[in-house]
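Researcher: Structure prediction, please.
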Amino acid sequence: MKLAVIISTKNAETNWNALRLANLALKKGDEVSIFLLGEGVEYSKFSTDKFNIMQQVDDFLQSDKGKIIACGTCMDIRHQQNSKSCPIGGMEDLYSLIVTSDKVLTF
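Model: Predicted structure follows.
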């Protein structure tokens, strides 16, 4: 299955759970794409010991079936730079994920 996960919040627990689900889907053999939108592009700033988002991201990025894309406009608004855990993309990428995925989940 091809799964698209859209993260649009900076809530640590919500993002941690979204990433745990994404990692589980990868382990089950699915292809997973995560699109960061709005304040979701700030997700890495809210990683804590309790909700270790960055550990989940590191695990996710180890798979060749997982990719992360972030809204470039949303990153510009927040003065964020391109990075491995938050690579710049755009609305065209989001549209492509939606129309080519079997399931789309939003958090």
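Model: The chain has a mean pLDDT of 96.
Researcher: Thanks, that helps.
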